């Protein structure tokens, strides 16, 4: 996982080394730092990238909060070889956060799958 604002890079949390209660605790920021270990992105392969989104479209467009952290995290991981063409990009939003179309720039990371409380959408990208 990326640390907040990428200040301390990335952490690896290995659930096979944790108890059920530690896994639950590791899902918090404090727990992630407690149970995670710092890693260099070039030492892992990532199958699933979860991007935060404020609004998304069925064509895979997404907008975050405007700080660009998801796009930067994705670029860092891709440049390090941690992401492959098979890496799936997923986001979770409420149904009302889906709009018809979102214009994108070359640095914007499109999503492959949108998960809402009522449905899962495979995007048309």
Descriptive report:
The protein has helices spanning 20-26, 29-35, 69-79; strands at residues 10-12, 37-39, 46-50, 55-56, 62-63, 83-92, 113-115, 120-122. It has two domains: 1-39, no CATH class; 40-125, Rossmann fold. Helices cover 20% and strands 25% of the residues. The longest helix has 11 residues, at 69-79. The chain is globular. The strands form three sheets. The protein has a four-stranded mixed sheet, with helices on one face. It has a two-stranded antiparallel ribbon with strand order 1-2.
- Can you say what the CATH homologous superfamily of the largest domain is? NagB/RpiA/CoA transferase-like
* Count of DSSP H/I helices: 3
The largest β sheet comes out as: 4 strands, mixed
Structural class: alpha/beta
- Radius of gyration computed on alpha carbons: 15 Å
Give average pLDDT, whole number. 93
What is the spatial order of strands in the main beta sheet? 3-6-7-8
C-alpha geometry: globular
The parts where pLDDT drops under 50 for at least 5 residues are none
CATH 2nd-level architecture of the largest domain: 3-Layer(aba) Sandwich
- Compute the number of structural domains: 2
N/C terminus separation: 25 Å
Q: What is the CATH third-level topology name of the largest domain?
A: Rossmann fold
Tell me the strand percentage band. 15-25%
């Amino acid at each position: 996982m990326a640390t907040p604002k990428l200040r301390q890079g990335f952490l690896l949390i290995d659930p096979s080394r944790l108890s059920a209660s530690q896994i639950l605790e590791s899902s918090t920021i404090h727990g992630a730092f407690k149970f995670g270990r710092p890693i260099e992105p070039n030492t892992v392969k990532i199958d699933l990238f979860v991007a935060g989104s404020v609004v998304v479209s069925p064509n895979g467009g997404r907008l975050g909060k405007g700080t660009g952290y998801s796009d930067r995290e994705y670029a860092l991981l891709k440049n390090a070889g941690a992401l492959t063409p098979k890496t799936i990009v997923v986001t979770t939003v409420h149904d009302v956060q889906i709009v018809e179309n979102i214009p994108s720039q070359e640095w914007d990371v499109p999503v492959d799958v949108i998960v809402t409380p009522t449905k899962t959408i495979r995007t048309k990208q």
